[in-house]
Amino acid sequence: MTATVIDGKAISARMMAEIRAEAGELEAAGWAPRLVSISVGDVAAAELYVRNQQKQAEAAGVAFEARNYPSDISLEQLTGVLAGLNADPRVNGIIIQRPLPAHIPVKALQKAVHPIKDVEGMHPSSIGNIVYNDLTLGPCTAVAAVEILKSLPLKMEGLDVCVIGHSEIVGKPIAFLMMGLGATVTVCHHMTRQVAVHSRAADAVFVAVGKPGLVTGNMLKPGAALIDIGINRVEGRTVGDADYASCAEVAGWITPVPGGVGPVTVAVLMRNAVLATRMQKDHYRAAFAAAV
Amino acid sequence: MTATVIDGKAISARMMAEIRAEAGELEAAGWAPRLVSISVGDVAAAELYVRNQQKQAEAAGVAFEARNYPSDISLEQLTGVLAGLNADPRVNGIIIQRPLPAHIPVKALQKAVHPIKDVEGMHPSSIGNIVYNDLTLGPCTAVAAVEILKSLPLKMEGLDVCVIGHSEIVGKPIAFLMMGLGATVTVCHHMTRQVAVHSRAADAVFVAVGKPGLVTGNMLKPGAALIDIGINRVEGRTVGDADYASCAEVAGWITPVPGGVGPVTVAVLMRNAVLATRMQKDHYRAAFAAAV
């Protein structure tokens, strides 16, 4: 068997067309979506990433302002900046770019973003809402990986799914999202005795660990879907967590790296921006109607 | 094999002794823990439950005030009551008794309780914090079930765990809590093709579905731990979700119903009350120190 290669760019393009239409509607209603990106200190590591977000935001009809603060800014000053953005009705979404300097704990910043402007879906309350199956703003990479699986001709209810990697922002949210769709989910990680026992029994495998070559073809059930979320640099090339050649021989569908989950993740970020703007519009209108 | 019967009352008693000591320390510091229980309308269904909580609170040295509101109270009035309790420093925890009248959506009330007073661990932000492995106030039944498993001589890291039932307040939180302890977790539910495939491979099985006799001995691996969270009334008797006789022959450990998870759940509620009080004390002191 040779796997069908999943075209992340095509899925992203379909999503972006819908997002652009919605952003246009919001703009016509006086609520043009607007994101603010916060980076701190030397931005070289994140620059390519931010520039790509900016380009995609333009394509989606979402305004994008990249702010950079000096590396000696204090946590108090930064949370003050966030409080200002939370209160500003012209700002609909806030992105915290990583890496941050050591004295700025990323979780403290994520919690300081109001959940209604949390377009990255990182606030504990956003994560909790996913558990409650109230999908509002979900963590972008996890949502993107699930969107890709949903694009395949597989019935999600009862699907046996194996998630390799149990990070808070990717592995665990994928698990809840898939549970919400009716799948039977097993989450494996570095303490799992034999990952292959679980992955070989699964109809779909998600891998998000950050180890090139971790998943090999003999760890898959023939015909399974493999969604590779890893991004690793090996000898100057970008590769995922799967040993692509052997997996493509066994899997039914496989995502390439790059060109798989990556492009869809940016589209989800833009969809979250539009969704957040709509939520804020409804929230402000309800508050206004109540006041009259 | 005949399973060792897990004594929930003994585990509860050990926990209650620790909680009482901590409650005493807090009282000596001027922060005697205090819970307010809110029930609405006819309380017959919840009365036994509330009375039991009250008794356990007394035993733990936690003050307990049971409030009942008329069944025609509006959601706005109730959220107003909760806002008052959130702001009142003499109240450290709020319990929303179920069932509620149809016009009062339970989730809306749960979200209206401030997360720092959410002793039932039901707020989306409390659930999200569990996912983030920041165990603050967890949902009582799920935490109790995990406490019981932790009392057994099993290594949690790498343990193969099967959770049957994926409710937001029991099954899913058990899954995250066990992931946080390093277990490999599979979550099964009514859409799972063959529960036995998963349960038979597991070293520990949690069941929380509400179907008497759902788990039978032939669904277990010999020597596995079975934590039965179900509470069902069958012919005037209270039984769990396991077919006790056949499971006790195969399992290594088994919780009885009643006398297993139930008593530990009330102890966890009291521990949450003490924990919440401590968090509030620290929060107020930090705010006071900052103001000076």
TrEMBL record, chains A, B:
<keyword id="KW-0521">NADP</keyword>
<keyword id="KW-0368">Histidine biosynthesis</keyword>
<feature type="binding site">
    <location>
        <position position="231"/>
    </location>
    <ligand>
        <name>NADP(+)</name>
    </ligand>
</feature>
<dbReference type="InterPro" id="IPR000672">
    <property type="entry name" value="THF_DH/CycHdrlase"/>
</dbReference>
<comment type="function">
    <text>Catalyzes the oxidation of 5,10-methylenetetrahydrofolate to 5,10-methenyltetrahydrofolate and then the hydrolysis of 5,10-methenyltetrahydrofolate to 10-formyltetrahydrofolate.</text>
</comment>
<dbReference type="InterPro" id="IPR046346">
    <property type="entry name" value="Aminoacid_DH-like_N_sf"/>
</dbReference>
<comment type="similarity">
    <text>Belongs to the tetrahydrofolate dehydrogenase/cyclohydrolase family.</text>
</comment>
<dbReference type="Pfam" id="PF02882">
    <property type="entry name" value="THF_DHG_CYH_C"/>
</dbReference>
<keyword id="KW-0560">Oxidoreductase</keyword>
<feature type="binding site">
    <location>
        <begin position="165"/>
        <end position="167"/>
    </location>
    <ligand>
        <name>NADP(+)</name>
    </ligand>
</feature>
<keyword id="KW-0511">Multifunctional enzyme</keyword>
<feature type="domain" description="Tetrahydrofolate dehydrogenase/cyclohydrolase catalytic">
    <location>
        <begin position="6"/>
        <end position="120"/>
    </location>
</feature>
<dbReference type="InterPro" id="IPR036291">
    <property type="entry name" value="NAD(P)-bd_dom_sf"/>
</dbReference>
<comment type="pathway">
    <text>One-carbon metabolism; tetrahydrofolate interconversion.</text>
</comment>
<feature type="domain" description="Tetrahydrofolate dehydrogenase/cyclohydrolase NAD(P)-binding">
    <location>
        <begin position="139"/>
        <end position="279"/>
    </location>
</feature>
<protein>
    <recommendedName>
        <fullName>Bifunctional protein FolD</fullName>
        <ecNumber>1.5.1.5</ecNumber>
        <ecNumber>3.5.4.9</ecNumber>
    </recommendedName>
</protein>
<dbReference type="InterPro" id="IPR020630">
    <property type="entry name" value="THF_DH/CycHdrlase_cat_dom"/>
</dbReference>
<keyword id="KW-0486">Methionine biosynthesis</keyword>
<dbReference type="Pfam" id="PF00763">
    <property type="entry name" value="THF_DHG_CYH"/>
</dbReference>
<keyword id="KW-0554">One-carbon metabolism</keyword>
<keyword id="KW-0378">Hydrolase</keyword>
<comment type="subunit">
    <text>Homodimer.</text>
</comment>
<dbReference type="InterPro" id="IPR020631">
    <property type="entry name" value="THF_DH/CycHdrlase_NAD-bd_dom"/>
</dbReference>
<keyword id="KW-0028">Amino-acid biosynthesis</keyword>
<keyword id="KW-0658">Purine biosynthesis</keyword>
